C-alpha cells in the first residue's frame, strides 16, 4: 500500500530557511591535490634510493672503493653516490636504473642518517685511512630546505588553534560546514541570497493574517518594484523597517515574503552572527553585507535578532566587554546613514525586545518604521492553519475553526509545528489522511510536552494527583474572577503529573481580585492535598513558584498592596537587570516580604474555605478523575452545575496550564 506514502505528504520544502548548508567538496579536492603534489615533490629527487646502515655502507661500498661522493645534507643525513662503473655490479642492481627503468640512475643511490656530524667525519676518516686516493669518496655538504615540512610545522599549530577555537565557541554540535565557513570566511558575512532566478519562494500570500502589517510592507514592495513612482514625487521610502514580535510570529517569514513578492535578492544575517569570535569581525561583516546588497540593488537586507548588536550602549553593567558590539553597532549606523534612501536597499530587522534597543538605531533615517507582529487571534490562526494545511492531505471533516479555537496563544511557528506534528502522528499510525484526533494529539503535545502513558504511577500517588487537580478545578470553578476550565487530566505529560487547562480571556488589565483568585486557584491543588491527606506533598512546586512570583509582582511592581502603596520597582529599561543593588531599603524589603506572605496566606485561606465547603464535590471529582483520567468542561458542569461565570468568546487568549 504505497498510497499512504503518497498521501501523507509532509511538505518539508516549505521552510526554506532550514535548508542545510551543504558541505562543498571544493576544499577537500584542493587539500587532496595539495597533498599529492607534496608527496610527488618530496619523492621526486630520490625516486630510486635505498636506506642503508653505516656498517654495511662501510664494508660493502666504501672499503670496496665503489663510492664516488658522499653528500651530507643538513648535517643530519648522508646521501651516497656510487661510481658509474661500479653500478654495473650485481649488488647495485636495485638502485642502478633511473626513474623509469631506462636510464642510469645518476644518484644519490643510498642514504642513511647520522647522529652527529663530528663523529661521522671521524669515523669516515678512520675508515678511509687505508684507501687509495682514487678510491676515496669526495665529501660534500649540502643545505636543503624542506619547505613542505616547514610550512606544515607553521600552519599546523595555527589550524589546531583555529579548530580549538571553533570548537569552544561554536559548541560541540558545530557541523563541518559551519567549521569551514568560520575557518575560511571569517570577516565575511555569510548572507544567504535568493538571486532573482531562484527567488525567495515565500510571497505575501503565504503570510496569513496581519492585514495591517501587510498593507504597510506592500508599500515597500511597490517601491522595490517601481521606485520611480515614489521618487518622481520626491517621496522618500523608509530605509529601515523594524519588525517587532515574539519568537515565531513570522518576522523572518514576513521579510522573506517582501523579498519574494518584489522579486529582489534577499540578504539575511542574524545579529548573533555578527558578534562571533574574532574582535573586529562584526564591523567588517556589516560592511560586507551592505556592499553585497548594494551590488544587487534593489535588494533587501534582513538582520534577525538585532537586539544582540543594538542593545543600549554603555548602561548595562556587564562583565563581558561591549567593545565588539559597539563597533558593530557603529558600523551599522554608519552604513545606514551612508546610503541614499532611494538607492533601493531596504534594511529590515527583527527583534522581540524593541524596548532595549539603542535609541540611535530608531532615529529617523534608520529604523524609523516599526511594524508590530502580535500573536495571532483566532481568525488569524485559522488563516495560518489554512496556509499550512494546504500541502497536507487531511480528512475533509477536520474543522479548521475548531483547530484555531483549540490553539489560543500559539504563534505562527507553533501552528506550522502542529500541522507537521499531526502529519507525523497520522503517518505513524499508517492513516490515509490526517484526522481531527491527530491534530488534537499534536496540539496536546505542544501544550504540555509529550504524553507519556507509560510513566508508572502507584495507585496512592494517582490518588494524590487526582485530589490535587480536583482542588485546582473546584477552586477554579467556584471563583468568580478566574478563567474557565476546559479540561483536567491526570495523565502525565512531560515532567508534570497532571494538568488543568483553562481558557483565559483576553485582557490587557488584570484587577486585584483577578490576581487574588488566580493565586487561590493555583494554591487549590496543594490545599486539597492538605485537607484530604492532612499533609502536603512535593507535587506543588510549580504552583508555589508561580504563586510566589505572582505575589511579588503584585506587591513590588504593580502597586497592588496597600502597605507598599503606589510604588513600582519594575524596571522597563532592563538596565538594572544585572545590577547588584536593590532599589529599595532594607525596611521596604522586609515590608514587601511581609505583604507577599500576607497575600499568599489570604489566598490559601480562601482556597481552604472553598474546598472544605465543597468537600463532597471534591471527593466526587477526584473519583471521576481516577476513573476517567481526563475530564472536560461538560463533566464538570454535570457535577458542579453551571459555572458562576460563563465562557465568553475572546480574541487573543492563551491556553494556560496549571500542573
Ligand atoms: P520569527 O522570525 O518571528 O521568529 P519565523 O518567521 O521564523 O518567526 O516564523 C517561523 C515559521 O512560522 C515560518 O516559517 C512560517 O512557516 C510560520 N509562520 C509564522 N507566521 C506565519 C503567518 N502569519 N502565516 C503563515 N505562516 C507563518
Ligand atoms: Zn498544581
Describe the structure.
- The protein is of the alpha/beta class.
- The chain has 4 domains: 121 residues, name from scop, CATH 3.40.1690.20; 182 residues, P-loop containing nucleotide triphosphate hydrolases (Rossmann fold, 3-Layer(aba) Sandwich); 71 residues, Orthogonal Bundle (Helicase, Ruva Protein, domain 3), CATH 1.10.8.60; 191 residues, Peptidase M41 (Methane Monooxygenase Hydroxylase, Chain G, domain 1, Up-down Bundle), CATH 1.20.58.
- 48% of the residues lie in helices and 10% in strands.
- The chain is built from 25 helices and 14 strands.
- It has a 5-stranded mixed sheet with strand order 1-4-3-2-5, with helices on one face. Strands 7-8-9-6-10 form a 5-stranded parallel sheet, sandwiched between helices. It has a 4-stranded antiparallel sheet with strand order 13-11-12-14.
- A hairpin with a 3-residue loop joins strand 2 and strand 3.
- Helix 20 packs antiparallel against helix 21 and helix 21 crosses helix 23.
- The N terminus is likely disordered.
- Bound molecules: adenosine-5'-diphosphate and zinc ion.
- Zinc ion (ZN) binds next to helix 20.
- The site of zinc ion (ZN) has 7 residues, from helix 20.
Amino acid at each position: 500500500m504505497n498510497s499512504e506514502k503518497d498521501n501523507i505528504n509532509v511538505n518539508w520544502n516549505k521552510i526554506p530557511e532550514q535548508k542545510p548548508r551543504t558541505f562543498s567538496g571544493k576544499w577537500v579536492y584542493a587539500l587532496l591535490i595539495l597533498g599529492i603534489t607534496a608527496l610527488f615533490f618530496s619523492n621526486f629527487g630520490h625516486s630510486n634510493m635505498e636506506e642503508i646502515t653505516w656498517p654495511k655502507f662501510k664494508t660493502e661500498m666504501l672499503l670496496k672503493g665503489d663510492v664516488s661522493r658522499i653528500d651530507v645534507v643538513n648535517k643530519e643525513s648522508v646521501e651516497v653516490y656510487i661510481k658509474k662503473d661500479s653500478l654495473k655490479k650485481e649488488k647495485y642492481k636495485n638502485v642502478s636504473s633511473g626513474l623509469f627503468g631506462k636510464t642510469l640512475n645518476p644518484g644519490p643511490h643510498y642514504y642513511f642518517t647520522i647522529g652527529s656530524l663530528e663523529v661521522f667525519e671521524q669515523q669516515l676518516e678512520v675508515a678511509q685511512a687505508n684507501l687509495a686516493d682514487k678510491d676515496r669518496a669526495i665529501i660534500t655538504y649540502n643545505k636543503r630546505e624542506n619547505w613542505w615540512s616547514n610550512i606544515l610545522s607553521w600552519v599546523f599549530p595555527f589550524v589546531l588553534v583555529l579548530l580549538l577555537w571553533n570548537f569552544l565557541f561554536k559548541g560541540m554540535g558545530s557541523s563541518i560546514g559551519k567549521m569551514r565557513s568560520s575557518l575560511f570566511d571569517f570577516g565575511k558575512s555569510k548572507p544567504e541570497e535568493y538571486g532573482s532566478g531562484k527567488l525567495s519562494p515565500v510571497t505575501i500570500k503565504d503570510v496569513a493574517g496581519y492585514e495591517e502589517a501587510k498593507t504597510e510592507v506592500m508599500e515597500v514592495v511597490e517601491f522595490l518594484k517601481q521606485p520611480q513612482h515614489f521618487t518622481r514625487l520626491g517621496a522618500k521610502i523608509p530605509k529601515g523597517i523594524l519588525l517587532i514580535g515574539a519568537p515565531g510570529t513570522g518576522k523572518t517569514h514576513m521579510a522573506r515574503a517582501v523579498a519574494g513578492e518584489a522579486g529582489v535578492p534577499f540578504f539575511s544575517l542574524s545579529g548573533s552572527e555578527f558578534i562571533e569570535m574574532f574582535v573586529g569581525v562584526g564591523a567588517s561583516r556589516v560592511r560586507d553585507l551592505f556592499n553585497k546588497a548594494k551590488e544587487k540593488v534593489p535588494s533587501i537586507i534582513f538582520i534577525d535578532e538585532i537586539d544582540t548588536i543594538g542593545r543600549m550602549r554603555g548602561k548595562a553593567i556587564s562583565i563581558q566587554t561591549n567593545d565588539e558590539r559597539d563597533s558593530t553597532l557603529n558600523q551599522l549606523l554608519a552604513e545606514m546613514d551612508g546610503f541614499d534612501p532611494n538607492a533601493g536597499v531596504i534594511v529590515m530587522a527583527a527583534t522581540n525586545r524593541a524596548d532595549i534597543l539603542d535609541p540611535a538605531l530608531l532615529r529617523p533615517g534608520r529604523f524609523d518604521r516599526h511594524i508590530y507582529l502580535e500573536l495571532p487571534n483566532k481568525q488569524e490562526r485559522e488563516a495560518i492553519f489554512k496556509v499550512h494545511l494546504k500541502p497536507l492531505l487531511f480528512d475533509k471533516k477536520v474543522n479548521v475553526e475548531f483547530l484555531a479555537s483549540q490553539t489560543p496563544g500559539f504563534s505562527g511557528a507553533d501552528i506550522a509545528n502542529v500541522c507537521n506534528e499531526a502529519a507525523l502522528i497520522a503517518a505513524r499510525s499508517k492513516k490515509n489522511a490526517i484526522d481531527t484526533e491527530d491534530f488534537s494529539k499534536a496540539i496536546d503535545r505542544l501544550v504540555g510536552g509529550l504524553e507519556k502513558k507509560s510513566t508508572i504511577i502507584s495507585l496512592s500517588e494517582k490518588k494524590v494527583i487526582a485530589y490535587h487537580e480536583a482542588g485546582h478545578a473546584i477552586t477554579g470553578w467556584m471563583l468568580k474572577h478566574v478563567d474557565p476550565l476546559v479540561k483536567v487530566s491526570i495523565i502525565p505529560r512531560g515532567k508534570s503529573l497532571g494538568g488543568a487547562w483553562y481558557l483565559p480571556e483576553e485582557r490587557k488589565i488584570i484587577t486585584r481580585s483577578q490576581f487574588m483568585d488566580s493565586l487561590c486557584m493555583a494554591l487549590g491543588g496543594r490545599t486539597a492535598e492538605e485537607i484530604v491527606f492532612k499533609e502536603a506533598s512535593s507535587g506543588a512546586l510549580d504552583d508555589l513558584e508561580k504563586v510566589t512570583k505572582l505575589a511579588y509582582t503584585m506587591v513590588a511592581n504593580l502597586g497592588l498592596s496597600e502597605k507598599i502603596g503606589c510604588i513600582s520597582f519594575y524596571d522597563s529599561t532592563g538596565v538594572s537587570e544585572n545590577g547588584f543593588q536593590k532599589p529599595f531599603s532594607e525596611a521596604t524589603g522586609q515590608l514587601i516580604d511581609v505583604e507577599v506572605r500576607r497575600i499568599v496566606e489570604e489566598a490559601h485561606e480562601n482556597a481552604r474555605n472553598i474546598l472544605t465547603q465543597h468537600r463532597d464535590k471534591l471527593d466526587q471529582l477526584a473519583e471521576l478523575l481516577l476513573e476517567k483520567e481526563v475530564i472536560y468542561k461538560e463533566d464538570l458542569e454535570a457535577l458542579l452545575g453551571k459555572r458562576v461565570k460563563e465562557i465568553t468568546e475572546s480574541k487573543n487568549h492563551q491556553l494556560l496550564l496549571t500542573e
